[in-house]
Amino acid sequence: MSINSAMIAGVAGLSSNSTALAVISDNIANVNTVGFKRNDTSFARMVTKSSGGGGYSSGGVSAIPRALIADQGLLQTTGNATDLAISGDGFFVVSQDSAGAGGVAFTRAGAFVADSEGYLRNSAGYYLQG
């Protein structure tokens, strides 16, 4: 193994560890963000072509961050009678107007408040569709 090959493997390891720490930091920073799903990091070996003459070339490691968007988030009790939660698959259907004519969007955040007309609206002003 040449000194260059050893340095490349070391730099790849440090870079992968840096990526893993960034993912952990992102998880910590967003722990109270509504609807945030944690991320995870997996590591994979990098295999390189060995140099001619039977020499060894180390490949290093690569970090692969993954967003765990299919996992169920934590359900939290709020004490607000109009807050809703979905356990399992599915989304709340919301729209920019109460009739749903402005197109629809999907969300898992269930913090709704009744407006003056009795319609449930989220913090972005979208109406909950039924």
- What integer is the average pLDDT? 83
Secondary-structure content class: alpha+beta
Assembly classification: single chain
Order of helices and strands: HEEEEEEE
How are the strands of the biggest sheet laid out side by side? 4-3-7
Cα shape: elongated
The rounded Rg comes to 24 Å
Spans of 5+ residues with little confidence (pLDDT < 50)? none
Number of helices: 1
Largest sheet: 3 strands, antiparallel
Write a structural description.
It is a single chain. The protein is α+β, with helices and mostly antiparallel strands. Helix content is 21%, strand content 22%. The chain contains 1 helix and 7 strands. The longest helix is centred in the N-terminal third of the chain and has 27 residues, at 3-29. It is elongated and about 75 Å long.
List keywords for this structure.
single chain, 3-stranded antiparallel beta sheet, 22% strand, elongated, two-stranded antiparallel ribbon, alpha+beta
Outline of the structure:
By secondary structure, this protein is α+β, with helices and mostly antiparallel strands.
Provide the fold topology.
Layout lengths: L2 H27 L9 E7 L15 E7 L24 E4 L8 E4 L5 E2 L5 E2 L5 E2 L2
